[in-house]
Design goal:
CATH architecture: Alpha-Beta Barrel
CATH superfamily: Divalent-metal-dependent TIM barrel enzymes
Number of domains: 1
Structural class: alpha/beta
Number of strands: 10
CATH class: Alpha Beta
Helix content: 40-55%
CATH topology: TIM Barrel
Strand order of the largest sheet: 3-2-1-10-9-8-6-4
Number of helices: 12
Length: 348
């Protein structure tokens, strides 16, 4: 019997994951690395893919004409090629403009909704120029601070209209919805993978609407990330992940993967590995930030450490005695199973 070929995982992160240390409660504490400097770090750290917001790729894009945006994006693609990097996805940054104060796609102002759709189309243009078909939608302000402010049924309709406009604008793109239960809005309309997948089924082409699942967002929703990943995998809709960790139900911390709960991280690696994630080229994406107390010269450690933790947990997943695990399951000896897993993690 031929030996099963093991998945060779590719890793990615976004340039915002190398940052100067600002948080919701304080200003930057480190000097920023320039974008060209950041590009040089990817391969050195073992990463092949780069995640983009649209204005990471083309700064000040709102001040540029479409042809200027495309010219800048094409120049960036050459830089990526020179560094041996691949653009994993582009995400329209729809939460930092004065026109999206009340939401983007779900704003109560129709002119603001129109802006959000046009900005999304420019993001699609950038993605095409960079050679990726994937558009991530973090629906950051698609919600309310008070429920009476918006009609939630109408809000869903607005989001479907926006996604339809994007799908019809380019017949090759895929939309990857990144659900989150809160922050910056108190009440999000699409808080979980189930909501995101169901939203896709309302669009003109559900086959091109999937999800990006982030560990911390699941934890904030009170759901284990591996369960959310398993749910999306069961639907064939898990097209990328944002691995990180979260120390309680506070603001989105984006901590080093596995740094808070190693067993929770193990189960994320396990569900991905055992269900074929990565075999079609999907990236292991990280969305992590260095601790605010870290000095600039050490502010890349979180990226290296997260990748190392994933790979070490992957080794445990691949070498753990599965027959032994199954014997505990068959006997319904879950105390024994739990201790068996913990012993493997402690010696790993």
């Amino acid at each position: 019997m031929a030996k099963k070929e093991l998945t060779k995982y590719r890793f990615s992160f976004g340039p915002w994951n190398i940052h100067p240390g600002a948080d919701p409660f304080g200003p930057p504490v480190r000097k920023e690395f320039s974008f060209p400097e950041k590009l040089k770090f990817y391969k050195k750290l073992g990463f092949d893919g780069i995640q983009f917001h649209d204005d990471d790729a083309v700064p000040d894009m709102n001040d540029l004409k479409p042809e200027q945006i495309m010219a800048k994006a094409k120049r960036l693609r050459k830089k990526l090629k020179d560094e041996g990097l691949t653009a994993e996805f582009v995400a329209p940054r729809l939460w930092e403009d004065e026109r999206t104060i009340d939401g983007a796609y779900t704003s109560n102002d129709s002119s603001c909704r129109k802006y959000a759709i046009e900005r999304s189309k420019r993001a699609i243009d950038i993605a095409k120029a960079l050679g990726t078909r994937d558009i991530v939608l973090w629906l950051a302000r698609e919600g309310t601070y008070i429920r009476e402010a918006k009609d939630s049924r109408l809000a869903i309709s607005h989001m479907v209209n926006a996604i339809n406009a994007m799908l019809e604008y380019d017949k090759d793109i895929r939309i990857l919805i990144e659900p989150k239960p809160n922050e910056p809005m108190d009440h999000a309309f699409i808080p979980t993978a189930g909501h995101a997948i169901a939203l896709g089924f309302l669009t003109v082409d559900e086959s091109r609407v999937g999800v990006n699942i982030e560990s911390a967002h699941c934890i904030l929703a009170g759901i284990d990330p591996s369960d959310e990943m398993g749910y999306a995998l069961a639907h064939g809709k898990l097209w990328t992940v944002h691995l990180n960790d979260q120390n309680g139900l506070k603001f989105d911390e984006d901590k080093t993967f596995g740094s808070v709960d190693l067993r929770r991280a193990f189960n994320q690696v396990r569900v991905l590995e055992e269900n074929g994630y990565g075999r079609n080229g999907e990236f292991i994406g990280l969305d992590i930030k260095a601790m605010r107390t870290q000095r600039k010269e050490k502010s890349l450690e979180h990226l290296k450490n997260s990748r190392e933790i994933f790979l070490r947990l992957l080794e445990i997943v691949r070498t753990i005695d599965r027959k032994k695990m199954q014997s505990y399951i068959n006997k319904r000896d879950y105390e024994g199973l739990e201790m068996f897993v913990l012993r493997n993690l402690m010696k790993g």
